[in-house]
Design a protein that fits this description.
single chain, about 250 residues, Rossmann fold, DNA polymerase, domain 1, six-stranded parallel sheet, two-stranded antiparallel ribbon, binds magnesium ion
Amino acid sequence: MYRPDAGAVKATVATGGAGAAIASSVAGTPGIWYHWPVRDDPEWLFDLDNTLYPPENGLFGAVDARINEFLAAHLGVGGDAADTLRRRYHDQYGITLVGLMQEHGTEPQHYLDFVHHVPVGDFLGPDAALRELIGGLPGRRSIFTNGSRRHALAVVAALGLDGLFEEIFDIVALGFRPKPDPATYRTVLGRLGAEPGRAILLDDLARNLAPARDIGMRTVLVGPMAPSPVADFSIPTIQDLPSILPQLLTRGS
Ligand SMILES: [Mg+2]
């Protein structure tokens, strides 16, 4: 991919909400091209759902509803029981699918096709500013998701981010060992040939950041929640990433 200047990222500082406070205290003037030394190009790992887009748009809720539907039909339980089960599997196994595979021998592709059969384009549209932001980052960018590759491709396409990501690590590629299983972070870094100190993980769930930080990756919590001790940085939305870039990129191994 053509990158006019690998060491420069255009800072588009947030102007409202909690992001503004963080941005103004860290990044300074909006609209300036910041230059700083990047010792080694970083390896960016972006979670997908509720990280590349905010939870308020309803897409992830629609997927959760499909998961409940699947549970109800597959296990013959009512809606409330399905919802309780989904939450238990999520807490106990990382994702619902692994709970179903472990406890009921569910065939994973059937499940993935069913739960991700949602009209992604009804929830997400092209985001030119996000494309400029992510496309301008130095280093390689990949998706690291507990969902399916097909869903990741649909989200990336709907947001207009095609061609920006080197790899998509989905639950199948991860051997059905979802985040926060510590082994899966090593798997991803191994496939990228990257040392942990060069990698940056952005995720909306603090529990997914903890194992990454344990092995020396830089971690960014994305979302409106309180900062977490397992996050090196916290930003309210992905659009606030420029506000922390100078510190994030110069910190490192
Ligand atoms: Mg997420």
